Write the structure tokens for this entry.
Amino acid sequence: MNNWNLNNKQMEQCVNCPVHNIDNLVKLGINMSNFDYVIALAGNPNTGKSTIFNNLTGLKQHTGNWPGKTVARAEGGFVYNNNNYKLVDLPGTYSLLSTSTDEDIARNFILFGKPDVTIIVVDSTRLERNLNLVLQILEITDRAILALNLMDELKRNNMSIDLRQLARELGIPVVPMEARQKKGMDELLKYVDEVSSGKFICKPRRLKSLSPKIDNAVNELSKKIKEQLPNLPNTRWVAMRLLEGDQQIIDALNSGEIGNLEPSLKHAEEPV
Amino acid sequence: MKNYTDITNRANELRWEIGESFHDSIIESIYSEAAAISSNTVKTSKNKDSYSFDAKIDKILTSKALGFPIMFVLLALVFWVTIVGSNYPSSLIAELLLDNVHPWLKQISSDIGLSYFVDGILIDGAYLAMAWVVAVMLPPMAIFFPIFTLLEDFGYLPRVSFNMDFLFRKAGAHGKQALTMAMGFGCNAAGVVAARVIDSPRERLLAIITNNFSLCNGRWPTQILIATIFIGSVVPVHFAGLATAAAVVAVALLGIILSLVVSWTLSKSILKGEASAFSLELPPYRPPRILQTLYTSLIDRTLFVLWRAIVFALPAGIVIWLVANINIQGISLAEYFIDWANPLGLLIGLNGVILLAYIIAIPANEIVIPTVLMLTVMTARLSGIGEGAGVMFELDSIKDTTTILQAGGWTTLTGINLMLFSLLHNPCSTTIYTIYKETKSVKWTAVATFLPLIMGFTVCFIVAHLYRLIS
């Protein structure tokens, strides 16, 4: 009897758990007026960003097994758990440091577009190289989810990844996925819901291995920026870009445009 | 608005203090931490079967000796399957739309008493043009696009790009031009848009201007039909399919060579510059998702392109019917033009009919062949074939088409030159508009439009003279 009750209770929890509410997903295509949250899809080329985009929005962005198909950013919408999401598919890049059009589009969107969640799609069979971009994105944004895609290929290559350890190291949720087979979408949606609504607070990893001299300089400048722009979420990253002499960021600072990055202004900008 | 010059000033001072190594040491930190995380989390067992399997395939597909032959054989195989596979469904659709539906529509029109003019424009013009395009285009597209998409899904395209990279670099163009060129084989407008993957404006212009040298979907039927008549028929019957496929591949290859030559010429003259370096990742081979590929390539690509063709074919059909039926002093507009253009046409091994057909077909290359046949019948004053002035029709067999074309004064030279001119003429109006949208420049749009046309006239002129010297 007792057992039966427990099972029933467990069942109830399962039914209410968002993971089992994949039926709640409504693909909106390009119809995305009145969205509540903005989600960005970033990652290296050819890791499956467009496939995830299509799975969520029901749109049919051209996908193919070659890097560089997504030439500009594509946008679509979906509804999950009664929230309207706008999803932006960014062009694939290997870094956010050097200057090519692709990297500018991706970087500027994560910085100035202020997505509520950035889903970083990585190729699990090439984790080390993909992490270079992940670490750079985590310097810019606090809210991110790692979509560890192509898990089937990982298995075929007789490799495995310690998911808990990876999530601990990065301080963000890690979701194993096989996007082409639509596997892992439910868990991804659950985390999108939790991170965007603030139920899950990320503690993204920041670069630890900087030399003391550089670390001091970054900290000093970062403090100075924080004094004047207390709400800027990514002062450390802005400090590093300034130290590197990034003209775009210097211009944004000189023109005062950088103030727009403060989240307090965010909802005022959006048309009601 | 606030001003933060004190922050930038302090940043400038600090930048001096920490020295030039800043950028490198940041990158170093990123790389070393990524390596540390990865070694903490990734477990690799000792046998790396799948990787070495990928490497083995790559060794063959991208080898110096075998890379290109495999590419050509694959290309020829795709065309051969397309040519052979689309014959039967084509004639089936033609029988339905032209032999059954068309007479039925005519019957209805005479029952409700439509005037000669309305009946002609709607049924003999618009409907027949549409029916022809569907019959000719649907089967090859339904075969070609899925096969091409399967190759793409499998991961073959980046290998093609890898193989051809050194050629494009030597031509002063970007290696990714190989990818935009491949897209152009489906549709030039799509290829022009795909050139956005190239960052440098100079190399992007090269890719855009030369994209027209990729035979697009609308031109394959012309190539295939003319090759079947004029190339396939001069070899023994059981080699006909193979010879036809080979001829079509030869024209496609000529297009690739010309796009390299034109890129080289432009990058040595008005678009001077060096090719920029880029890294191209060879993705792992992935088993293609057959069902999904079939679905997306049929619904998204095939029906999309077909719809576009139909939209353009309807007004073109009306124009064809009108120019063939509006008479001034007993002679139709079409005949005036053809008589006037014939001397120029014959000089370059074509004829006035073909030139008029290419003007009518500017909106869509797909309707060149039906227009040519209709105009030829009309001007050669054949009786007993076809259905009257300005009526496009499907012929029962290739033999009938041959009879008509020969009666119209066609020779093997006309066939060869039509294949060449089909490769080398102005892009269709959609592509021209796309080029303008992408470049925002009238000048470069004009270059991309007229350069191939001038080349077409020149090449056809030279081939005609050589041919006449030999024969």
Observations:
- Chain B touches chain A through 63 residues (CB under 8 Å).
